[in-house]
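Reopening: Polysaccharide deacetylase family protein still failing for me.
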Amino acid sequence: MKIYPFLLLLFLIKSNAQQPTIKKVAGAKQAVFSFIFDDLNTSDSLVKSIFDEFGFQPSFAITTNRLNPKTAPLYKSYAEEGISILSHSHTHPKMNNSSVLDKESLLMELKDSKERIESYGITVRGFVTPNSYMRPEFLSLLDTEYDYAFTNNHNDLYNISVDKRHLGRFGIESNISTSDHSIEKIRSRIDQAIIRKELLVLYGHAMPSTYQDDLGKPRVTANDLRAILGYLKSKRDNNDCLVLTADLAMEAYYK
Ligand SMILES: [Zn+2]
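Support: Ran it again with your exact input. Result attached.
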C-alpha cells in the first residue's frame, strides 16, 4: 500500500513541527547600571543635583497620590531632560497578597497611576512594585500597560534571560554598611555585575535616607551616594559599563 509512506511522511513533518523551539538568548555586550528613587520625595531635587555633578541621570518612580499640580512640573522638567519617570502605583499597596488586593484593584493601580503621570505630559514606560514583590498571578496585568517592570520575579538573576517585566533591583540602603557607611559591598556588587555583564538597577528613597544606621543616623547620605556614583563613573570612563536612566537602560540592554 502506497498510503503508508505518505502517512509516515505526514507523521515526521508533524512531529518535527511540534519540537520546542529553543530560544537563543544573545548575551549582553556589557553591564548596564541605572538608579531609581522611589515614592516622590522632596529630596528628589537633591538626588538630581548630585547626579548632575557626575554627568549621570537618575530615574524616579512616583507614587501618584503625591503627584499634583504643585509637584508635577518638576518631574515634567526632568522628563524633558531625558530622565525616566516610572509609576510606583497610586496608593502604594502591597501587591504580594491577593487577599489584601484583588486583581481589579491592582489593575486600577497600574492604569490609574500611569494615566495620572501622563496627564501632565510625561511619558511612562516602567513600573516599580511597592514593597518590591508582585505575586505571580498578577504579572500578566502589566503586559498592556508597561514596557518593563520591577516585580522581583527574577530568580536572583540580573541578566538578559530575565523577562523585562519581572526585574529585580539592588537596594542601596540594604547594602551599605550600617556601622561605618562603607560602600564596599556595593562596590563589589558593581564589579560582579561588570564581569557578568548584568543589568543592575540600584534604588533608594529619600536623601538622606529615613532608614537608620546603627547610630540612629540616616543610613545613606548625599556623600554616600557621591561615593557610589564616583566609583561607577570611573568604571564608565574606563568603558567597563554604561550608566543610564531607566528607559534608556532597558533599550540598551534588551536591544
Ligand atoms: Zn515605595
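Strands lie at 31-38, 59-62, 84-87, 126-128, 148-150, 170-171, 199-204, 241-243. If you still see a failure, please send the error message rather than a screenshot.
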